[in-house]
Amino acid sequence: MAGEEEKREGKGFTVQDRRRFSPDTGEARENTGAAAAGTAQETKEGGSESQSAERSRQDLLPEINFSTFVISLSTQALMQLGEIASPLSGKVETDIPAAKQMVDILGMLQEKTKGNLNSSEERLLEDILFDLRMRYVEAVKKSRSN
């Protein structure tokens, strides 16, 4: 029984803050050697290759800001409108109500962020909404004619 307790105690885990920005100041953090050492230690303690592959994949993802967030939402709307194929299935599928909801979400974002965006973010959101609304109208016309 005592041996089992010792084994359990040795298999603990550590929590490391890997956020790119400081929660206090919101400024970008420098990559420190401590984070790299922690990653190496986790791999030694039983981390699998898939975990390290996932970490490197996350390092390759672009930084999220307002513009990339808006673009990701518009990409979802385009998939739901049947304009682009789903990356999961590889098939072009249409879901008009879900596309309308995504366009409405983008419209709500535009309304709620009015006066808080820089000119390029404002223009991006305006252009994307115009394009998606036109595509939505065309998709509704096409679905009614079929």
Give an overview in words.
With 146 residues, the chain is mostly helical. The chain has two domains: 15-60, no CATH class; 66-145, no CATH class. Helix content is 63%, strand content 0%. It is built from six helices and no strands. The chain starts with a helix and ends with a helix. 9% of the residues are buried. Mean pLDDT is 79; it is low at 32-45.
| Average pLDDT rating | 79
The fraction of residues in strands falls at under 5%
What is the count of structural domains?
A: 2
Give the termini separation: 71 Å
Q: Work out the helix count.
A: 6
Shape: flat
Number of strands: 0
Oligomer: single chain
Unreliable residue stretches: 32-45
In N-to-C order, the SSE pattern is HHHHHH
Instruction: Profile the largest sheet.
Output: none
Based on CA atoms alone, the radius of gyration comes out at 23 Å
Helix content: 55-70%
